[in-house]
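TL;DR need structure tokens for one chain.
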Amino acid sequence: CVDLVKNAAESDADCGGPSAGSGLPGTCAKCEAGATCGVAADCQSGVCAAERCMPAKCGDGVKNGGESDVDCGGACMARCGDGKACAKGGDCQSGVCPVAVCAAPKCDDKVKNGSETDIDCGGGCAKCAPGQACGQAADCASGKCESAACVALRLDLLCPGSGRLGRRAQLA
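>> reply
TL;DR here they are.
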């Protein structure tokens, strides 16, 4: 595995073959893209097509090239679904990676995900406070959503036209 010649059980010069990349004595390293291969295990990418090691890429059906799971997360544009491996929240569709595994959205995960309209509120979660994002009045504790934000309630101290104190709630 060090003579720059394809010999013994190597699939290409000084790479591949049985136990390639295992680190066992007498075994070669895995082959780089473009090298001759007999099986996927001969290649660094884990992909051998038409007897050539292929470069790692998203969509090749193998976890390689900086992906956090097969064809998702890490270097891939596609985010991983729940239960898939992750290194950080950005690897996951949910945005949540608590213990190296993508987790389903929850109303207390400190991430805007699932049906939430803001972080951990709206949609199927608790009502949102004034200033938080909303999609409809039902998302807001005040019951009022204007320009995609929950609006606070205020009390008018004077009833219109009477000059007397009142308790009529009006929307701000």
